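Subject: for your reference before the review

Hello V.,

The reviewers asked for a structural picture of the protein, and I figured it would be easier to keep everything in one thread rather than splitting it across files. Below is the amino acid sequence we used in the manuscript, unchanged from the supplementary table.
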Amino acid sequence: MAEANWYVVHTYSGYENKVKANIEKTIENRELQDQILEVSVPMETVIENKGDTKKKVERKMFPGYVFVNMVMNDETWYVVRNTRGVTGFVGPGSKPVPLTPQEMANMGIGERVVVIDVKEGDMIEVISGVWENVTGVVRQVNTAKQCVTINVDMFGRETPVEINFSDIKKI
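And here is what came back from the structure prediction:
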């Protein structure tokens, strides 16, 4: 069987959630769960200032676009392309172009989860990034954000810095 990739589908603005629901309903009706694996409308939480109040709201990261993880063939192309509200796939002409792993990582789609055996009080070394070759004691581990907080000596002061799991090693 062919490999599934992420594709970007252009929709009418404001119809992203309806398109997602329609594609998911068609997947269920035509039993295409093994060919169209996931339909996503990436959201982000932002804080809006309205007068004196601050409010957390969910906002679409890419208005007018829906992301579909699918095996591209004539049937899946037809199902997605002919869904109400879809104007077409992103790509030259009518040829859909899959997202590269780097593009997906930059957008936070299909992120890899790094598991690391580090706890508060452990000594670590930063192996890449801005703080490369710096060592420090772990002050906090945040598994949700995939990072640790260490104190770094900056201008003679201890300053807390967040470092990604993928950029550290335990000493």
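For the response letter, the relevant points are probably these. The chain has a mean pLDDT of 86. Residues 5-107 form a domain with the Alpha-Beta Plaits fold (CATH 3.30.70.940).

Happy to draft the paragraph if you're swamped.

O.
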